[in-house]
Amino acid sequence: MHDWLTRGASDWLNHDIIDRGRLPLLVFFLGLIVGFVGIRISVRLIRADVRWWFSNVTAGDTHIHHMVFGVVLTLLSGLGLIAFAVSGEQPVMTVLAGLFGVGAALILDEFALIFYLRDVYWSHEGRTSVDAVFIALAATGMILLGFRPLDLYFDALDGLRVGRTAVVDVAAAVLNLGLAALVVLKGKVWTGVIGVFAWPLLIVGVVRLARPTSPWARWRYLSRPRKLERAIARERTLRRPFVRAKILVQDLIAGRPDVLPHVRAATEDRLNQMVHPAPPPPAISPHRGLSGTIVGLPGDDVPARSEPPDGPGPGAPNDSEHEPVEPHR
């Protein structure tokens, strides 16, 4: 059994990965995993204030997020990949691809900070970063296994005997990515990612109702209460079996005596917390910080105040939860 698995893994690595030039992609995939797991362990050790581990990197009063190191690493490794693409030296390209994957992991781990323009790493919104990493892993894994975007589309063209030209290819790519973006805006992230490789899923995602907490629902459903109610009811129906199964497993492990009654009640309570209408679009504040960041956005703990002409005094509290891009002098 062990020999069979070893021989199968070796054949797969040699024929499907190395011979087809996919070794850099495989190392990028592994670098993405190692970088994400490593930085998640690191931030938890830092938060636990473990003595033998590193502490936060700061420049004066400004905390330097690990996303910054990811940007530098991806830029340097990406430049190296472009430089060595001409010669096509696979060992060098493989090392650079691994570094690119680690840098991408550092950036995607703080994707929520980029998306919300504030530090939400440990909040509920911070789970967006985890979703972004999983999406990147899923897309890379599918390409690594041989799936390519638009394959189903081109197969359909060949079946219909429609000639393929560069214009048709570009139009198909634009249409495919446009539909995928629309599906993602509707809150169906996994449908959008998998649909890039299997376009019929994009058609289903576009036709179906958006998730009630998605940007599309915020833009289109707030003025249409009936459609928003339908979206909420559909979301509760889809999520209920998964939430119920999760609570059931937790109760069985804990040895709760009243498992079934508690599962039903706890499921509805959990759905009330998870499924809700999207918040209205925020109004952009006219106040802008000296570094170019917008302060006083809705959701800030303290409303922005006008500063004296000489700037804030020493030790003055920050009016926004947004971290400054650079210290102001």
Automatic annotation (TrEMBL):
The keyword Membrane applies. The chain crosses the membrane at residues 23-43, 63-86, 93-117, 132-154, 166-184, 190-210. Residues 275-329 are annotated as: Disordered. Residues 319-329 have a biased composition (Basic and acidic residues). Keywords: Membrane, Transmembrane, Transmembrane helix. The keyword Cell membrane does not apply. This is Integral membrane protein. It comes from Gordonia mangrovi.
